[in-house]
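Dear Dr. H.,

I hope your travels went smoothly. While you were away I took the liberty of generating a structure for the chain from your last submission, since the lab meeting agenda had it listed for discussion. I wanted you to have the full record in hand beforehand rather than looking at slides cold. The sequence, exactly as received, is reproduced here:
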Amino acid sequence: MDRQPVYQFFGCAFRLIQVWNLIHLVLQDKSIWDQDLVDYLVPFLKQNVETFTGICIEDTFISNEGVKALSEFILISKNLITLSLARNKFGPSGLIALAHSITNNKSLTEIDLDGNKFNYKSYRVLALALRMNCTLTRLSLNQNNICESAAKALASALKVNKTLIEFNLSFNNIGDEGAKYFADALKINTNLLTLNLMFNNISNVGCKALSDALLINKTLKTLFIQNSWSGASSIATGAFMECMKINVIRQTDILLSETKDRNMYISTLLCNDEFTVNLPMYVMDYIYSMLNFVDRIVHI
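The corresponding predicted structure, in token form, is as follows:
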């Protein structure tokens, strides 16, 4: 297949950089393959190692070889701040190469790896990189096939990492055991502000562990667990209600459903405007009905 059109595209981008000082490269094209990165893009980036602050390569056909080549650039990059490789075709070996490149990187602050499929070994290497990296503040691993063993490795990194403030693990399968691992991490971590565990097959058991952790953790501001479990009971609901009453020093905008007025009503009744918990609609309905009942009794 002739790759000359891709080369011409990168050549055009290079000339624009010279004229307009473009510093963010975005490629979202199904015609981009590994060979394009190896032969054209990575050499082009290396020639302009101090130019780019952002790289977004999404929804392409690049796989492990392409990501390995890109990792060579990340190793030497000095000003790269954001990196998005969402919804591509690379797997464990690509993630391992990427993890090695960010271990000692001093510029990257945001990484998006949504929609790729990795395994436990590669997540363990990523966890080691998170332990050593000192600049990354946001990491998104949405829909990445993360199970409880991978969750254990990633949660352990949170006990050591001092810079990550936002961690997105939504649409995975960490389950109750994974939730417990993150609950243990939250008892130690003092910098994470947002943790997204939506749609992770977490039941009341995992929710209880997380709510207990929030009684200790004083820095987390937003916890997403919406639609993580089915058949919610009063155990999980009561645990989070108790947590919200006690943690009066944190942000509270309870975005539990689409009804903003109801959220504001609950926040007011709990007298807690500094903590966010995202729960399923039926739990929201339960909390609302209970608080509404208590409020009516108080005002009789």
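Two observations you may find useful: Residues 1-103 form one domain. The chain is about 50% helix and 10% strand.

With kind regards,
E. W.
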